[in-house]
Amino acid sequence: MHVAVAGNIGAGKTTLTKLLSKHYKWEAQLEDVVDNPYLDDFYNQMERWSFNLQVYFLNSRFSQVLQIRQSGKSIIQDRTIYEDAHIFAPNLHAMGLMTNRDFENYSSLFELMESLVKGPDLLIYLRSSIPNLVKQIHKRGRDYENSISIDYLSRLNERYEAWVHGYNKGKMVIIDVDNLDFVDNPEDLGQVINTIDAEIHGLF
């Protein structure tokens, strides 16, 4: 089974992926932020590095999806291949941080990859307000994220909501994370698990 966790920067995807991996004994596929050779450069000079970063993410996630399907294991994935193509890349293009030429090149590459993979069996979307995202980003204190603007996060949030509204790749649950603390409050995590259980049982 392939489960994926989606959501804006700071929504709690990695944390929830790890907690659910432990609970369900699923293998976790985490986003490559530590070894990503473009992230620092991108946040310092978005226009110069946007295409390189997006192609890196696309390549990384395409590899993950192929591995997931070939492994035959139950895997939970931190962020999907769709978010890059429907949210991050179009946002950079719309903000004038990715040229038309690069965006068209990127989009055709994504379409080719998308034709070769299937969507996850279950998508978990973490919905969050901007103040909550800002609070979480500051709390984890990654240097390269200090320069992320509220405008940038807001644009991403709008695109996430539009994407989720039209999502048709499979089953989806939406979890509002503003008033949930699944790290320190076991009841909150239990609530999330109950919601997921109900969907998983509907898959079989």
From TrEMBL:
Binding-site residues, ATP: G7, N8, I9, G10, A11, G12, K13, T14, T15, L180, D181, F182
Cellular component terms per the entry's GO annotation: cytoplasm
Database matches in InterPro entries: DCK/DGK (IPR002624), Deoxyribonucleoside_kinase (IPR050566), DNK_dom (IPR031314), P-loop_NTPase (IPR027417)
Keyword match S-adenosyl-L-methionine: no
Pfam family, one: dNK
Residues binding substrate, per UniProt: E31, Y43, Q54, R79, D84, E145
Record has Cell wall biogenesis/degradation as a keyword: no
Top-level taxon of origin: Bacteria
All residue ranges annotated as the Deoxynucleoside kinase domain in the record: 4-198
Recorded family membership: Belongs to the DCK/DGK family.
UniProt-recorded name of the protein: ATP-binding cassette domain-containing protein
Species of origin: Seonamhaeicola sediminis
